[in-house]
């Protein structure tokens, strides 16, 4: 079965083609010396305000070694309590 179309294929949306992107922001001209957008500048500002994480490479190494040696003990009760509290929080209910 052959399907033919009597209507021409749609033309690209000229407003999108003129702007250079779907987001509505114009693409920077090549070699224009463009600076980061206001969004990028704001993101950098917010990133600088974030509190440093509690990540400890030494603790990760210690736990990794304990797992490899078979010495790491999981506190199943603590894991279960935190899982229930997290689930309750996601559901919008007060935790235990």
Provide an overview of this structure.
The chain has 96 residues and is mostly helical. It has a domain at 57-91. Helices cover 49% and strands 0% of the residues. The chain is built from four helices and no strands. The chain has helices spanning 14-19, 38-49, 57-69, 76-91.
**What separation lies between the terminal Cα atoms?**
66 Å
Question: What oligomeric assembly is this protein in?
Answer: single chain
Mean of residue pLDDT? 75
Instruction: Estimate percent helicity.
Output: 40-55%
Q: Provide the low-confidence segments as ranges.
A: 14-23
Number of helices: 4
- The outline comes out as extended
- Spell out the helices and strands N to C: HHHH
Ordered list of secondary-structure elements with their pairings:
Elements (H helix, E strand, L loop, with lengths): L13 H6 L18 H12 L7 H13 L6 H16 L5
Explain briefly what this protein structure is.
Helices cover 49% and strands 0% of the residues. With 96 residues, it is an all-alpha fold.
Descriptive keywords:
single chain; 96 residues; mainly alpha; 4 helices; 0% strand; extended
């Amino acid at each position: 079965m052959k399907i033919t179309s009597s209507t021409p294929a749609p033309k690209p949306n000229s407003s999108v083609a003129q702007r250079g992107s779907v987001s509505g922001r114009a693409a920077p001209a090549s070699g224009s010396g463009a600076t980061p957008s206001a969004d990028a500048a704001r993101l950098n500002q917010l990133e600088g305000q974030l509190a440093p994480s509690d990540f400890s490479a030494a603790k990760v190494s210690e736990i990794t070694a304990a797992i490899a040696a078979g010495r790491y003990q999981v506190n199943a009760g603590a894991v279960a309590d935190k899982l229930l509290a997290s689930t309750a929080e996601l559901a919008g209910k007060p935790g235990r």
